[in-house]
Amino acid sequence: MAKLPHNRTWYTKKLVAKAKLCVKIRDKYICQYSNKECSGSNCHASHVLNVGTHKNMELDPSNMKVLSSYYHLHWWHKDVLHATEWFKNKFPERYEYLMHMSKLDFKITTVQMAELHAATKSDGSDYGKKYYELIQEIVK
Predict the structure, then answer these.
(1) 122-126: long-range contacts (C-beta < 8 A, 24 or more apart)?
(2) How far apart (Å, rounded) are the C-alpha atoms in residues 7 and 3?
(3) Phi-psi map region of 124: left, alpha, beta (phi>0 left; psi -120 to 50 alpha)
(4) Distance, CA of 110 to CA of 129 (rounded, Å)
(5) First CA to last CA distance, the chain
(6) Which residues lie across from 43 on neighbouring strands?
(7) Which pLDDT belongs to residue 4?
(8) pLDDT of 51-110, one tens digit each?
(9) What CA–CA distance (Å, rounded) separates 5 from 44?
(10) pTM exceeds 0.90, yes or no
(11) What gap in Å lies between CA 36 and CA 68, rounded to an integer?
């Protein structure tokens, strides 16, 4: 196998950035808690399931939602139980999907990450579709 031009950390950073752009497009730059438009540094695409505990879910757009910086930092991270209950009630199908996926033992290889990076646009517009196609191959 040929050596990849970058390491796993590089691909992770690039793919997380694409995933976050994808989520912002999906959520139309609207804070999912306040329903107000947000932009620039005030617009955060934050993870639902903690990346430290659920590393395999880091690149999944379903594991992200748009929050304004205020609600991300002063609500989501400060009141985890209430925030989780809110997410579960607002997005029940996504919550069930996340619970299911979090129990699966899978890993996206560095080669697969490189291929996903090469196959997706830098603006994140097609990231979600390509990500789910890859995951279907991995977990089948």
Answers:
(1) 122/18, 123/21, 124/17, 124/18, 124/19, 124/20, 124/21, 124/22, 124/23, 124/24, 124/25, 125/21, 125/22, 125/25
(2) 10
(3) left
(4) 19
(5) 24
(6) 68
(7) 86
(8) 999 999 999 999 999 999 999 999 999 999 999 999 999 999 999 999 999 999 999 999
(9) 30
(10) yes
(11) 8
